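Workshop exercise sheet. Pairs work together: one partner reads the sequence aloud, the other fills in the structure field after running the prediction. Swap roles for the next sheet.
Pair: D.N. / O.F.
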Amino acid sequence: MNEDRRPYELKPISPEEAVENFLREREDEDKYKTLRSKRHRLNSFLQWCRENDIDDMNDIDSRKLNLEYRPWRKDGEGSGLQELASVTLKHHMYTLKKFLEFCADIDAVEPGLGEKLRIPELNPDDEVRDEALHTSEARDIYDWLNKYSYASRDHAIFTILWVTGCRLGGLRALDVDDFNAEDRWLHFVHRPDDERRHGTHTPLKNDDRSTRYVSIYPEVRDIIRDYIEHNRHDVTDERGRKPLITSKHGRLADTGVRQTCYRLTQPCRIEECPHDEDPSSCEWTSYNQYSGCPSSRSPHAIRKGSISAQLNGNVHRNQPEKAPVEVVSSRSDVGTETLKKHYDVRDEVSKMEVRREFYE
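Structure field:
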């Protein structure tokens, strides 16, 4: 017997055809947005195949995947590609793994190849994702909460974070008296820990410079007002203040806000799981495990997405136009240079369209 002969027989198929067959098979189970995400991730794999003259999936092996494709994609070496954060790389590799499992089922690659693909293991710090929440995802969450969880604490938390672009600490610092329904604003106030001043100890990031009034839309005003009237726990904190966002025992802790954000941004709450998990048995749907979901997002990621959406003019359906950098900087309490460097995640075409308005 020829020792080089494989115990299985592979059938030739191009990477492009294999991807199309994989996506076609998923059509009955995945929603459009999930399929679009999978196609986007697999397009970079197809690009790598073209650049390396790979026209048959039979030629793909674990060595090529782990030593060539994986670092190529992570470092953004392909034309038009960007370097990937660890959590984003995990998304790409997970989708590729599922694709390879499909290819093995149709005799296009060796059995078990998907299991040999190295997927990043993320530590707890990595799981606190900074990847911005996309505007389309935020709208879906907002609409779902409007319909199924109106004026709940979840609704109030997500709405304030998304519409104002405030930090987690800013959200927690809000008291009931910092909300003005008639004039439609929230007052973010720096109240540092000072034993000489009663009712303090919710400092803001930039001290007194973070103190500001932020206007809100009528719809947002109604959500907050109804939350206070119907669902806010009527409690005070340890300093006698009436916090806006509460637990049964007082001001909601940082951990409670984070867990809420991780849970609300899990896509399986609204549509099919893009990671092929069963929500009824998935460990990521358990408390303290929400952040393990590859699609969950931190409060900072919501802030980052909000700032970009404000710049693009679509943070809320009633936002009349794109907001200038200086306006968003003041509203969300972030320096203009810091905003441009770390928070502005718009693509270059979107930025150009904003500049165009001043030259036409």
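Discussion prompt: Confidence is low (pLDDT under 50) at residues 1-5, 195-199. What would you look at next?
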